Each structure stands twice: as C-alpha cells, then as structure tokens.
Automatic annotation (TrEMBL):
InterPro entries: Cyt_P450 (IPR001128), Cyt_P450_CS (IPR017972), Cyt_P450_E_grp-I (IPR002401), Cyt_P450_sf (IPR036396), Cytochrome_P450_fung (IPR050364). Transmembrane segments: none annotated. This is Cytochrome P450. Pathway: Secondary metabolite biosynthesis. It comes from Jaapia argillacea MUCL 33604. Belongs to the cytochrome P450 family. Its cofactor is heme. PROSITE patterns: CYTOCHROME_P450. It holds the Pfam family p450. Its main location: membrane. SUPFAM superfamilies: Cytochrome P450.
Amino acid sequence: LSRIGRRKVGLPPGPPTAPLLGNLHIFPTEFAHYKFTEWAQVYGDVYSLKIGPGTAIVISSAEAVRELMDKRSATTVDRPPNFMADAVTGGLNMVLARYTEEWRILRRTASAVLTPNASARHLHIQRAEAAQLMYDLLQAPQGFYTHIRRYANSVMMSILYGKRCPRYETREATAFFHVQHLWEAALEPGAHPPVDLLPFLRYIPERWAPWKKLCKEVRKLQRELYFGLLGECEDRVWKGEDSGCFMDEVVLRQEEFAMSREMTGYLGGVLIEGGSDTTSSFLQTVVLALTAFPETLRKAQEEIDRVVGPNRLPTPEDIDHLPYIQAIIKETHRFRPVAPLAVPHCTLAFEEYRGFLIPEGTTIFVNTWGIYHDPKAFDEPEVFNPDRYIASEYGTKPAFDASDFKHTLPFGSGRRICPGIHVANNSLIVNTMNLIWGFNFSPPH
Ligand code: HEM
C-alpha cells in the first residue's frame, strides 16, 4: 500500500507525491492547463504526475510532441479508460474510444469522407450559413454567442444530415445543446468520484451514484437525437432519394466501411459534437480578441478593404492574398487554443524517452496551452499580436529554433489528430474574413 502513489525511479520528475494519492490531492479540477504550465516551468517540458496508482505525463514542447506523439504514434494512439464514455456510448464515441477495432473503422470512415477534396464540397454550405451569421449579427449584435453557435451547429447538421438549423431554437439544435451540456457535465474532470481510478466505485448502486443516473439520461437523449436523425437518412437512402449528405453516403457504403448501425449512429453524433462547440469557440475568441485589441481589427480591415473592397463579399480564394488575416487565425489558435490540453492519449506499450521510462497505460496530456504560452518561444505570450506570424512562420522569437513546430498543433497530434481539420479550417477562414470585412467590434456601452 505504501508504494501506491509513489513516483517510481526512472519516471520523469514531477511534484512531490503523497502516499496513496500521488498528486491526486493537488490535481487541478478546472483550468488544468494553467497549473500544468506552471509545473512545466518547474519540472521541464516532460514531467510526470501520479494519480493514485496511475501515471500521467505532461508534454509542454513541440519537440516532445513530435518525438512522442508523431514519431511514436503507434504507441501513443490509445485513450485512457473512461467509464462515463463507455456507459453513455458503449465505447463508440470516436473522440474518447480506446484503440479498438471499432475506433479504427470509425476513424477510417470519417477520414474517407472528410478529405480536403470532400471538405471543399461542403464550402457552399459554410458560405451560406456564414451569410446568415452576418445577417443575424446585424439584426441582434448582442446575441453574438448564440448566433455563432447556431452557425457551427447548422453547418454540421447540413453537412452530416442535409438538415439546417435556421434558428438557435430549431428543435434539433435545442435538443443537441441540451444533451451536450449534460454530456459535458458527465465528463467534467473532478465533478464525480474518480471511477476510472477506483474501479470498485462502478459497483455502487444507482440510487447512491448520481453520476450513473446522469449517464443513463445522456445515453437516452443522445440516442433519441442521433438515431432519430440516422433513421431519416436511412428512409431517404432506401427510397433511392439520398441527398448527397455525409451520413447518406455512410449509410449507402455501410457494408464497404464495415460499419454496424450502432457505429453509424454514433459516428454522426460524434461529428456534430466535434464540429459544433470547437468551431464556435474559435470564432467567439476572434470577436473577443479583435474587440480587446482594436489595433489588430483596424489593420485587418485595412488589408481586406484593399484586397476585396466594399462591393463584394470575400471568397475563400481571397485568403491567399490576406496574410494579416491568416496571421489572425494562427494567433487566435495560439492565444486561446480551443482545446488547451487537446484530448488525453494513453500508451499501449512501454516507451523510453530522453532516458525516462514511460510505462504502458500512461496517460499523456499534450499541453498545447503551455507550448503556445512559453515565454522562451513567444514574446509577450499574453498579448494578441498577429504580427508575430508575419515576422516568422510559427510566430516564435527570432533566436528560437521552431523546427519542431507545425500549424496543425491546435488540432492534436499523431494518429488521433482531428479528422475534421479541413472542414474546420474552411469555417474559420470564411467567417474570420466575413466578420472583419463587414463589422466593427467594440465593448458594449
Ligand atoms: C476549430 C475547430 C476544431 C479544433 C480546434 C479541433 C481540435 C481537436 C483536437 C485537439 C482533437 C484531439 C486530437 C488528439 O487527440 O490529439 C480533436 C479530435 C477530434 N475532432 Fe476536432 N477540432 C475542431 C473541429 C472539428 C470538426 C469540424 C470536426 C468534425 C467534422 C471534428 C471532429 C473531431 C473528432 C471526431 C475527433 C476525435 C479523433 C480521434 O480520437 O480519433 N473536430 N479535435
């Protein structure tokens, strides 16, 4: 018992441990990226945390991401066990799924229909929804948070199911945001007893385990929505009236992809989840950053007025001629990454790195926030300054060796990198250009 929680010799260094708990008692329950970044300054860019008997590694440099997540992606492809995800989706939520045959099939199917070419075919949907976003903002600027969320949800619903959400209050959008809120509450680290660390907690009867009731409720609501939408696609496909949307294509090619009906339903669901609040969070940050740093808005407007002018909307091709707006997109990813700790990976086998031992089953956190807010790499990391990306490819200081950096870092790493990256980038480009072209932003009076 006295060995539980103790850091074994050979592990990367980390904060002092307590018997049984390891670092559990000091593990942050919210905004963990701040604490992880503070610890990186003390223990280095690769350090370990003991979470009871388990081990986690936190990576806070681009070099370690390349070495461990990209080059050794076959070992770091797994996700840590997640009781809540299993209880809610039967292990079929692609984002949280372990490295199973089901995950491989889900991933292959998603990748086949989310290639850069396939994503380009959805651009007309994104441009149309972006036009409504501008209209909504013009009509009711104070509702910008919900307008942007509607945009992102409607794009995903249209791409996946051929069904728009013209209002935030549209039935499917309301149902989605309601269940998503409960789903996030179920997954919130620290909000429930640590079922994954102390497996005996799984056997507590439901009446004393409110988290089990919550999982049941989320499962019911998700299934109603995801399988209801899938049923509509199946009806269309079976009548020979498929609309060309993503899920119609998956239903048509279900056998070729080796997808069961269960997997198909959850694939649609995870893509709405993966594509909605990520895209909207980014665009909300763009608006907030341009409001807080008016000089950047002025410079961006000057550029877009020069290149596009007032008589037409920007088109996706314009972005190649708008280096400052490209820099705003990169700087937004750096300044407030949508997923500051990405999604944790887990190792499938023992690894050795820089002389440290990394046991099988170790959770790996990629501290994207820490990498992008490292004062050794970035001048004044807390300032929103797109010009840093004009001065150098990765926005880093002149003397800093940025050869391990890559622009896809905000989308994760290795074999788990975000499969929606091309769809996402198109949304970010179209809307960032439109918002800067059409609006001034200032704090509320
Ligand atoms: C600004 C927009 C987005 C950002 C910043 C983002 C970021 C991420 C990150 C950090 C991960 C975890 C990668 C890892 O584990 O290393 C991820 C995974 C994922 N994302 Fe995205 N994402 C965005 C948009 C989207 C969109 C539009 C879709 C769907 C079309 C999507 C679907 C997914 C899925 C399914 C996964 C799980 C992949 C897996 O575990 O195999 N994301 N994303």
